[in-house]
């Protein structure tokens, strides 16, 4: 596309691209945007090095003019959009990228890869957090997604309200609290369960979490309390019929005097099995596969569409553009979002305001119910908002998600499939 | 686990870990193993650098003895397992890792991350390849999975029989054939569809593929043939009711004399929509979301379990070990796989041979039907099999997959949910 546009003289035409989703993944009630900070960082690093240019040249993928363009590539445009951690609905204008066609179109894959993957995880994770009903929930799914996605999934789950991750690299890179567990392999390494528990308590103290279901849970709990004493931090259960088993283990721990010992459960949990443990004496959850794979919706389904182009002649007018044939019809024009919040603090609607003035920000202009502006500057002339980056950006996104969730009506937290909890209104 | 095992004196106990899946993802008939070459490369690079060690130390994640172990870490053990591209069934011993507990347990996450993600993609992709019925099929899903998984998904899909990818980095890194398409944005950038088509044909020649569904398909096809002539390479359709639309477009192309112009379709295709186009005049398919997300099963569900440990005393005996409590009961002991092939060349069963001699390779010892040995050496004393690495490894895996698929009975290619097409027999 860039090669052909360079030849046709359209490559440097000013353009506006928009990221949005046509529907919510998995017929859910709301989505959680994640990945924005990673996108801004990735755009800053987006360069074509000698190895890439040599390969493109050797393979004749593009011509020399395009190679020269790529060799000098650096995004100098501007981006506005929803804050990371913001909630979204069908049609929400999540990211608006302004730049020349060539400099903006080349970012499509990296922007969508990050936002689709991270938002799928965050959207699934937020449902698990509400199902967990204020009990802590740790992300432990690194082994069930690609080795780089493992790190970014831990980040997305934390933004969505998870309390910790077992992925140490996510801790190092993003400042996310980390935790660890012992696997069955640790118990099986030793000549007996007692030897394994003793090794763990000797090393990590009685406040550690002992995995008690390698052989027989009842004997495992008894051995755990005998070895660690009633100060034992927690026991972990990773198999069996959890609602029943958890009650039995709680009763046994209490009988043994380990009344402060917590129970943590794992075992292919998802939002539904977590909700089914609502009445059970579980203190914390560890979730793996379901959270890192988006619990049935592993990609958020966002697209990156050209919505406006500027005349190259003297007029400089903007033309809204959109695909017009059957299916997947788009809405042209630059947009911004506003969430209408009632006097009770509860959101009523998602407004998407289509603007004719593509250079500036459209004005909301509401009366009555208070609009909360959702579109903020993220990158100006190639310079990202520093507050959106790194560990500070992750913390800000997590806090913003919490405040945005607090605006949702109670129906938002129903786990069944259904309609978005807020209607999208185009203005 | 390593810290506690270093203190208990068990960290250097010789161990055997095994990678296997308890069931096939999505109730499919067979699985396709992918990621083996990437695992071997990742293990070769698996080191703890100064940045990681400093963080682990500052955060007091582990003690000084463990930090020293990690600083010197280099895997020196051995691995055997199924070739990349091999098919698998429940219980197939896909990878057997031999080493000290500490050096083998630390690899769990990286091994499982890669194999679970890549095999999920390959297993889904193989079904699409058979549904495409010898027509070519390109992987175009980079934007619907994490930015690093995008590259490895292209690799896994190619091993499973896809013909090309739109991911240029996969071409550069793994030698996979690449292709590109023009997006609707390219058409919308220009003042008219005709201007866009002319720009593309000027740059890429009439053999290019023109996207004809931005405005009106019938007019788009007419314009495409007018601009490129009857030598037009292909038209792409990305929306609409494809089985009907494809027939109409074929008839229109033939009327216009463009009888050699091919039709390529995209639009959220999966194995079922590809199969539904079996009778339609489609020449090639482009698949995005479904293939990179494993078409409903984004993680293969493999686990990494300790199956044997060696006595540290003078006897040096091996003890098979496995989790024994309710649910997820394992089978201890080192294993190897063999596929029983009938005189007609068709596979009959997957044999998993459990061996008592954990140092060597168990012998199959079959009579009658010919067994094909599935377990081969992959890494010896930390040195990987060079034939399994890089672009050559990818080519070998793709060829091996083709020969292994040719052994399957026809029921293997039914798309509905069902039982594995071969029974797993433990010996």
TrEMBL record, chains A, B:
<dbReference type="InterPro" id="IPR007229">
    <property type="entry name" value="Nic_PRibTrfase-Fam"/>
</dbReference>
<dbReference type="InterPro" id="IPR013785">
    <property type="entry name" value="Aldolase_TIM"/>
</dbReference>
<feature type="domain" description="Nicotinate phosphoribosyltransferase N-terminal">
    <location>
        <begin position="1"/>
        <end position="116"/>
    </location>
</feature>
<comment type="similarity">
    <text>Belongs to the NAPRTase family.</text>
</comment>
<dbReference type="InterPro" id="IPR040727">
    <property type="entry name" value="NAPRTase_N"/>
</dbReference>
<dbReference type="Pfam" id="PF17767">
    <property type="entry name" value="NAPRTase_N"/>
</dbReference>
<keyword id="KW-0436">Ligase</keyword>
<dbReference type="GO" id="GO:0034355">
    <property type="term" value="P:NAD+ biosynthetic process via the salvage pathway"/>
</dbReference>
<dbReference type="GO" id="GO:0005829">
    <property type="term" value="C:cytosol"/>
</dbReference>
<dbReference type="InterPro" id="IPR006405">
    <property type="entry name" value="Nic_PRibTrfase_pncB"/>
</dbReference>
<comment type="pathway">
    <text>Cofactor biosynthesis; NAD(+) biosynthesis; nicotinate D-ribonucleotide from nicotinate: step 1/1.</text>
</comment>
<feature type="region of interest" description="Disordered">
    <location>
        <begin position="315"/>
        <end position="334"/>
    </location>
</feature>
<dbReference type="GO" id="GO:0016757">
    <property type="term" value="F:glycosyltransferase activity"/>
</dbReference>
<dbReference type="GO" id="GO:0004516">
    <property type="term" value="F:nicotinate phosphoribosyltransferase activity"/>
</dbReference>
<keyword id="KW-0808">Transferase</keyword>
<keyword id="KW-0662">Pyridine nucleotide biosynthesis</keyword>
<keyword id="KW-0328">Glycosyltransferase</keyword>
<keyword id="KW-0597">Phosphoprotein</keyword>
<comment type="function">
    <text>Catalyzes the first step in the biosynthesis of NAD from nicotinic acid, the ATP-dependent synthesis of beta-nicotinate D-ribonucleotide from nicotinate and 5-phospho-D-ribose 1-phosphate.</text>
</comment>
<dbReference type="InterPro" id="IPR036068">
    <property type="entry name" value="Nicotinate_pribotase-like_C"/>
</dbReference>
<protein>
    <recommendedName>
        <fullName>Nicotinate phosphoribosyltransferase</fullName>
        <ecNumber>6.3.4.21</ecNumber>
    </recommendedName>
</protein>
């Amino acid at each position: 596309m860039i090669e052909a546009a360079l030849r046709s003289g359209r490559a440097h035409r000013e353009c506006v691209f928009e990221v949005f989703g046509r529907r919510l993944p998995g017929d859910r009630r709301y989505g959680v945007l994640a990945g924005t900070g990673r996108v801004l960082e990735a755009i800053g690093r987006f360069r074509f090095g000698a190895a890439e240019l040599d390969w493109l040249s050797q393979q004749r993928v593009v011509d020399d003019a395009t190679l020269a363009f790529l060799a000098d590539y650096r995004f100098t445009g501007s981006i506005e959009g929803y804050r990371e951690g913001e909630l979204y609905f069908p049609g929400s204008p999540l990211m608006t990228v302004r730049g020349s066609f060539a400099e903006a179109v080349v970012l499509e894959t990296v922007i969508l890869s990050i936002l689709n993957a991270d938002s799928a995880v965050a959207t699934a994770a937020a449902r698990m957090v509400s199902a967990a009903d204020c009990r802590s929930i740790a992300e432990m799914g690194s082994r069930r997604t690609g080795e780089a996605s493992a790190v970014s999934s831990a980040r997305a789950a934390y933004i969505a309200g998870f309390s910790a991750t077992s992925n140490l690299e996510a801790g190092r890179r993003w400042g996310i609290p980390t935790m660890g567990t012992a696997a069955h392999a640790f118990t099986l390494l030793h000549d007996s369960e007692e030897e394994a528990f003793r090794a763990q308590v000797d090393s990590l103290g009685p406040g550690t979490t002992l995995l008690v279901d390698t052989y027989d849970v009842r004997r495992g709990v008894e051995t755990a309390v005998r070895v660690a004493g009633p100060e034992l931090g927690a026991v972990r259960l990773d198999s069996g019929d959890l609602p029943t088993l958890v009650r039995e283990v709680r009763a046994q721990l209490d009988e043994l005097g380990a009344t402060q010992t917590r129970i943590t459960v794992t075992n292919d949990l998802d939002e539904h099995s977590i909700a089914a443990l609502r009445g059970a004496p579980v203190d914390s959850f560890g979730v793996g596969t379901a959270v890192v794979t988006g619990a049935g919706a592993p990609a958020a389904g966002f697209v990156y569409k050209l919505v406006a182009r500027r005349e190259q002649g003297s007029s400089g007018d903007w033309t809204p553009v959109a695909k017009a044939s059957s299916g997947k019809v788009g809405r042209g024009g630059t947009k911004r979002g506003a969430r209408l919040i009632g006097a009770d603090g509860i959101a009523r609607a998602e407004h998407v305001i289509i603007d004719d003035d593509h250079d500036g920000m459209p004005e909301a202009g509401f009366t009555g119910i208070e609009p909360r502006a959702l579109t903020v500057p993220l990158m100006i002339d190639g310079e990202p908002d520093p507050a959106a980056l790194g560990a500070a950006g992750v913390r800000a996104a997590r806090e913003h998600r919490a405040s945005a969730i607090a605006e949702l009506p109670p129906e938002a937290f129903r786990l069944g499939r259904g309609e978005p909890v807020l209607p999208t209104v185009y203005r």
